[in-house]
Amino acid sequence: MKKKYTVTDRFVTKITGWIASLILLGLIVWGGGSLMDYYKYEQTNDAQIQEYVNPVISRAGGFIVDVKFEENQNVKKGDTILVIDNREYVLQQEQTQASLAKAEAQLVVLGSTINTLENEASSSQAQIAANKAKVWKQGLDYDRYLKLYNEESATKQQVEKVQAQLDVDKSEYRSSQENYAASVSKIEDIRAERNVVKAEIQRLKSLLNRHKLDVTYTYITAPYNGRMGRRTVEVGQMIDAGETLAFIVNDDTDKWVVANYKETQIKDMRIGDEVKIIADAYPNKEFKGTIISLSPATGSSFSLLPPDNSTGNYVKIVQRIPIRIRVDGSRKEIDVLKVGMNVNVFASKKHS
């Protein structure tokens, strides 16, 4: 019996045929576009967005008394993001300031002592001159009385009296010389002590500057304009110097892509070449980029345990070369690209 098709069956068949034709046409267009892209570009989807993501590290230890940021918050250079209890550091600073004031006062006292001793030395020097003159005069008297005694014009008692006075004057002369030498020696000792105090003052000033620096370390500020990442601290937490407290993404530097191309794809790539970048998150948006460097070695060569093909069975594997590509455009335009995003990179092939 001959099968009959209804109007509905013919309509469904016609619609199905049109849909199949459209699908086939779409596949042809997509395939043609893919072939054209393959012909025009060296492509890779082994690529990620990169920026400078730096840890915020404490240079002082203590209890956190204030946290002034939240995760993903924008911050400006110099903004305070963490505050550490600084009372111990302030006390150390005040103690050093007191020691410095004491040393400076001691320096003043030593200077005054030197002035006093210099005056005493000047007095002793004048006394030496006076005693020297007395010895000279008494020596003349002794010579005169001795001559008179020899001529029997003076008694022995008179000669002995003059001689005794001469001995006293000589003793006073030597005493004044010794006093002067002692004063000069004391002056030199105090000057040496003063140099020691000056060195101590310099040490205390350096120590004071260090304590002031420690106080500033208790206020942790943003090193540049950026966005805060993961927050791992809370008020009341005890931290140590050198501990990582948060992460910050630098907004003052360029974004770039690290594209890992196969070694067979890079023969025509040069620094300065323009590339096309399409992020998986924004498949309908095209970004521009510029090649700024090619790695000096394959990615595996920088691994912790680089392969050594001479130690066993050899299996050839196509290696990847990291290519660094700067993302071009305004900051507002490229800010939608976040660190770690996967992208597809298309580098133009050069045909002779």
UniProtKB/TrEMBL annotation:
<dbReference type="GO" id="GO:0016020">
    <property type="term" value="C:membrane"/>
</dbReference>
<feature type="transmembrane region" description="Helical">
    <location>
        <begin position="12"/>
        <end position="33"/>
    </location>
</feature>
<dbReference type="InterPro" id="IPR058625">
    <property type="entry name" value="MdtA-like_BSH"/>
</dbReference>
<feature type="domain" description="CusB-like beta-barrel">
    <location>
        <begin position="256"/>
        <end position="297"/>
    </location>
</feature>
<dbReference type="GO" id="GO:0055085">
    <property type="term" value="P:transmembrane transport"/>
</dbReference>
<dbReference type="Pfam" id="PF25954">
    <property type="entry name" value="Beta-barrel_RND_2"/>
</dbReference>
<keyword id="KW-0175">Coiled coil</keyword>
<dbReference type="Pfam" id="PF25917">
    <property type="entry name" value="BSH_RND"/>
</dbReference>
<protein>
    <submittedName>
        <fullName>Membrane fusion protein, multidrug efflux system</fullName>
    </submittedName>
</protein>
<keyword id="KW-0472">Membrane</keyword>
<dbReference type="InterPro" id="IPR050739">
    <property type="entry name" value="MFP"/>
</dbReference>
<keyword id="KW-1133">Transmembrane helix</keyword>
<feature type="domain" description="Multidrug resistance protein MdtA-like barrel-sandwich hybrid">
    <location>
        <begin position="56"/>
        <end position="249"/>
    </location>
</feature>
<feature type="coiled-coil region">
    <location>
        <begin position="100"/>
        <end position="134"/>
    </location>
</feature>
<keyword id="KW-0812">Transmembrane</keyword>
<dbReference type="InterPro" id="IPR058792">
    <property type="entry name" value="Beta-barrel_RND_2"/>
</dbReference>
